[in-house]
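Retro notes - structure team

What went well: the batch runner handled both jobs without manual restarts.
What didn't: labels got mixed up in the shared folder, which is why I'm recording both outputs here explicitly, each with its sequence directly above its tokens.

Job 1
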Amino acid sequence: MFVLFGTAQSSYASMELIKSKATPASRNLVFTSAGDQSNVHRWLNGQRDFDLWVVYYGSVPNRLSAAADLYLARPGTKFQNLHYCYSKWRSLIESYDAVLVMDDDIVIGASGISRLFQIRRDLDLWALQPAFRVAGKISWDITRIRTDTLLRYTNFIEMTCPLFRRDKLDAFMDVFDPELIGYGEDWWFLQTLGAQSRRRVAIADEVPCINPYDRDKGGAREIDRLSTHEQRKEVWDRIKARYGLHEMERLHEEYGRIDRSRLHAALAAARFLPEVAYDRAKQTVRRWRM
């Protein structure tokens, strides 16, 4: 294990890196900022080919340290903390080929995470995300799981749990401003990829995950404890003005797909039928009430 120790956790003092092994165990890294209601332990169930870096912002000293290969205690969002770690231990991050940056509440197992890294490597993707199951939140329809495809090439991924080829993440962190708090990150990153990103960005339907509803986490989003939606939007507006960014309306597009076989499409449809039926029933009730 690598452990990043500070002094008193409550003060989040400056940290020093202590390594107990010479090199990472994997070429893949999962990075998260995690609190006291995280699902991090679920990520370790199953066949695993990744190291886990946890930046803990909760209230219990050393919670999650035993689960992590790299660990420190520090407040902030995942991209704020990732930027901080780049500034302190960039050479360590550069020892990895790819980095999955995850919200701490995502429901997925180790074999699914490991498969995402394999898909990225096999297709030489610059960035991808797991599709979202309808058992949880879906903010953009393009990220909803399709049971007839294994993967879709798109012009959009959400910043909930993106997996980056590391050099593309390097380029984003080089321009990222840590004042930004969970708003505009997806648009900014995709802009850094440039015009050559067609068929380099994808959503993996083969490996879906659940993004839990806020009610399943006590009714509140952790990021809302840091700032309101309006405050985050104000920060994004300042960032755009500061760096001369010009946000344009982006239509979500699909450039191609890798289909499942008919048999595997039928099996996937059957597997997710109960939650799909429940989701459709909710939508029907919602329309009826309107």
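Job 2
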Amino acid sequence: MLEGIKTIPAPAEVRASLIRRSASQKIGRPTRKSRPFLLAAAVVAIIIAATLLLFARRNRLAGGDLSEPLRREQIVESVYGIGTVMANRSYQVKVGVANTIEDIYVQEGDSVFKGSRLLRLGGVVIRAPFPGTVTSLPHKTGENVFPGVPILGIVDLSDRYVVVSLEQRAAMRTRRGQRARLSFETMRGESYDGTVAASYSNEGNFLVRIDSPGLPPQILPGMTADVAIGVGENRRAIAIPVAAIAEGNVRVRRGSAAPFVAAIKTGVVDGARAEVLSGDVREGDRLVVPRKASP
């Protein structure tokens, strides 16, 4: 019955309109099959956000944040001071009566051996008493020298120690044999071991001598060092943040229970951490660390 009927092609603008309408339906509107997947993705995103928020709130309490779980660890208390590098052996040439320098065999900065010729005075040759470096030679050949005036100086730069000036309270806690750490301003990435050799006073200053045989050659007498002397140590201490302590008390959270206040007594303090000697604080507890007030 349809024979003889011809199909009339749609105009170009009609075909273009149909194509655009079909594309917009595919891109802009989700199909019935895709809607369950989008709903599931939205639910998962909400669950993740809620979990993160809950975790953040568990670690933040009124007035503070929770510390990491407490554990036993080594804690060392130190006293600090500025030290000066000194030489164990130094030598100066002086005369007892006025004399004239007849000859000089060295110059400043020279390394000498034991027995090396240094200079000649009144027909007598002065020789080095030990290996070292000539650090002072203020006179020249032919000059007159007088009693008590240094003519030449030698220092053994390989044999050094450090003298530290401490406050009275810190000096009272130092003992022979305590370990020390030395660092130098121009060598911040390095530190060197030392040992307390002696504590003494000199004209109202409280001084500690640190032996440090491992100092490198570039560390010279007269240089200054930052020195930390270990005066207390506990290798198995329950260490807590100093910032969590307020008037001898801490707020403790044990498990999921509400925080409670515990009175504590502290021992060794290393600056940021303190050893707990007594009080209801256990391994695994978390402490409330007060937040710093906003400026």
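One thing worth noting from job 2: Residues 79-86+160-233 form a domain with the Elongation Factor Tu (Ef-tu); domain 3 fold (CATH 2.40.30.170).
We'll revisit the folder naming next retro.
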